[in-house]
Each structure stands twice: as C-alpha cells, then as structure tokens.
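Reviewer 2 asked us to include a model.

Predict the structure of this chain.
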Amino acid sequence: MEQTFSSRNYNSNFSWQNRALIIIQYILFKIVGLSPWALDLAQIVKKRGGRNFSSQPITITKSVCGSLYNILLMLLIIIYNIVFFLHELTYNESDLQITIAVRVSLRISGSMTIIVIWISYILRQKLIIQTVKKFINVDRILAKCCHKTNQVINDIYVNVVVPSHFILSFAGLIVVLKVYPIMIVPVRCVPAIINSWAMTQYSLILNMIINRLKIINTKILKLGNVETSIKHRVIIADRSSLTDPKLVAFDLRHISSAHSQLSELSCEVSNFFGFPILLVIIYSGVSGTVYSYFLIFSFFEKYSQENIINYFSVGLWFSYMILSFIFMTTNVTRVKLQSKQTADAIHLVLDRCLMDQKIEHQVNMIFFVLVSC
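Predicted model (structure tokens):
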C-alpha cells in the first residue's frame, strides 16, 4: 500500500497519490463488505510534514456500524437468492432441469461463499486490527536503528495491478448489465467481485510485509557497508571493519525484533485469510468449469450478437479472477524470496566484515533466529 519508507521521515514521502490510493481502497473494500473495521481517514488526509511517522500512525478500530452493514448485506443476499430461486422455478420451465439445477446450485454456492467471508470478517476483525498495530510497531522499531535508510520502493504491483483489477471489474459489470436483465446482475457479478477483491486484499497485506522485509535486508547490508544489492557478487573481496560494533549490536537487536514480528504477522495474516481464500479457490474452480462448459456448448448454437457479448463477459470474469490469483501467488513467492535474501544478507556481512568474537556470536545467534522464523 505504501511506496516509500524513510526511517527519518516516512510521512514526507507519503505523497498524495499514496494517500488517495489508501482512501480509494478503503472505500471500495467498505462498499463490498471487506472492511467492517473503521479507519481514521483524517490521519491520512491531513498532511503533517516534518514530523516522524512513528508519532502519527494510521490506526483502525472495531466498528459496530461496519459490522451492521455487513449483516445488512448478508440479509439482502439471502432475500435476493430466495426471490431469484422462485423466479427460476416459475419463469424458466422450458429449460432443462439439469441446467436449472446447475445454475441455481452455482449461484447459491457463490452467495454462501461471500456470506461466510463477511461473517469471518465480522467475527475476526480484532485479528486484523492487531495486525495493523504490529505493522506500526515494526515501523517504529526500524526507525530506531542507527543505520538509516531512505529507500524508494517502486510498487508496480499496487500501482498497476490494483487499478487494472478495478477497471476489469467495472468493465465486467457494464458488460453484464448490457447482456442480462437487471435481476441477473447481482448473481453474476457480486460473488466474482467480492471473491477476487478478497484475494487482492490478502495480496496487498503480503505486499506490506514484502516492503518491510526489503528494508530489513537493506539495513543488514548497511551494517557492514556492504553493497545493498546482493544480486551481483564477487568471488574475492577485501574484508572491511564494522563502523561501530556497539551501534551494529544495537541495530541487530532491533532488526531481529522487527523480523520476528514480521514472521508473526505472516502467520496471523495467513490465519485470517486462510479459510476465506480456500472458499474462493473452490468456488472459482467450480464456477470456472461451469462457465467453460456453457461457453464451449454455445459454439454449437446459432451465431448471435448476444453470444459474442457473453463470450466477452466470461472472458472478463476469467481475466480478473486469474489476475487476482497471479497477484496473490506472486506475492506469496516474493515473501519467501525476501526471507531467503535475509539469510543471504547476513551471510554476506559475515563474509565481508571483520568483527570481534562477541559481535560475530551475536550475528550468528540472530542468523539462527531469523532462519528459524
């Protein structure tokens, strides 16, 4: 969600684009029921240049109104499905019974999936609030390090994928409105939109973890004045002394603490999103199979403009669902990659830097702690 991190002045790099992106994401997630908690938007909108970010954290709290809104959405979905089911039985008697059964089953399963997701978000919002607090605490710990960084992170995943996902979702809604009656639109769009954005929300939080792991890796390399890029290495290099062993020991303790909390964060985030994402994957697989079947079956029917638009509609559905899956799996892989680079960074510091036995022992101990996380 954020693009830059500065230990000295995070907020100065917290541009209006970043603020606008956070606000838009929050409003979007709130509308679709994926954000029952409350976010203090005044902390984001109001510019507080020149002050340390650690003194002005962005906080979220439990919201009764948000929970009631999710409950209202669930009631509307249940009522809508009852009405739609009665409509299917009354006005589609000419269709094959198996076609009606598959259609109704798919739509009920989609509704049940999003209802379970909404219930999970209501009951477990305390966990996500604690997660945000830990992110703030990690930022504060990293800001205390003596070896400062002013690292710019070009987050193409957030700046490109999220707007693309929004555009595809909006385009899919327009096409469905063009092809189907208004009564069919919620059944076709709501499950797909909520399921795909649930995966995107999980991916965005993983992206926040990745950004902080990048900062930790950079700080580890800076402890020994080692080149911050660990992609290019030389076989033989002169060993240099540490700038100040006491400052290095001080930073190592904070880096170890921050990394440990990030490891806990990863487990908590996976715990929060695990069951909802599992439901999304199951529903997406089933619905994708059904859509593919009807799409192939329509090739043998008489050519019509409605079929062409229907192909486009299904294509958009596959596009933003696949995009969500790619975004999610890519970020999971990036988390693992950054964790591996943490171990590589520590190895590089041990190889390139001269240090006394006490500091080396401390580095080795922290290395084992980081690897075990």
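The chain is about 75% helix and 5% strand. Residues 177 and 368 are 57 Å apart (CA to CA). We have added this to the supplementary material.
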